[in-house]
Specification:
By secondary structure, the chain is mainly β. The protein has one helix and 15 strands. The strands form four sheets. The protein has a six-stranded parallel beta sheet, with no helix packed on it. The C terminus is likely disordered.
Amino acid sequence: MQHLPNDTIDILLDQFGQIETVIGDPNFPTTTDAWGGNDTVTATITQPEAEVTIFGDDNTTLHGQSHGGNDTLTVNVNYGWNAALVVGDAQAMTDDARGGNDTIDTQDHSMYTNVHAFGDVAGDMSGNSHGGSDTITGAVGWRGFDNVYAGDAGGSMSGTAQGGNDTLDISLTPGRVQREPAAMPSAPSAAMRMAATTTSS
């Protein structure tokens, strides 16, 4: 079985509207069995409207006896109005493919940011594929309205596909909630004062 190299990739999204896709093992073989590298990918977002997509192995389908690597994928969001898709292994898995034991950490310290994180695949798992035992940690920023975290698949699981023993720990970023001041009672209207005077007399 072919073993792919272990890579370390750091990327900075520091431009307005910047869009980046990061692949841990580009051109992952789809016609032969392969084992993905144990890759480390870190993305940091510092400007608005930026979007990042990360696949620990490749944006493809793992076939046969292929096995995803044990990847560490981290996204730090430090501005706002951003989006991130983080996938531990691939787009889909089938046959006897296996997902790696991935670690995903998405820290959103901003506002209006949406994060989707999937331990194994963004799409479907079918055949006799098995998800890895993944660890997903996340912090949801202020007013994030479309945040999705799943230990195995973002789509469906069919056939004899099985999920892994995953751990998810998702929290809300503190200090972002703004409370509206309590409404002050309005002064009674002239009609109300007249009614009260009439009733008491």
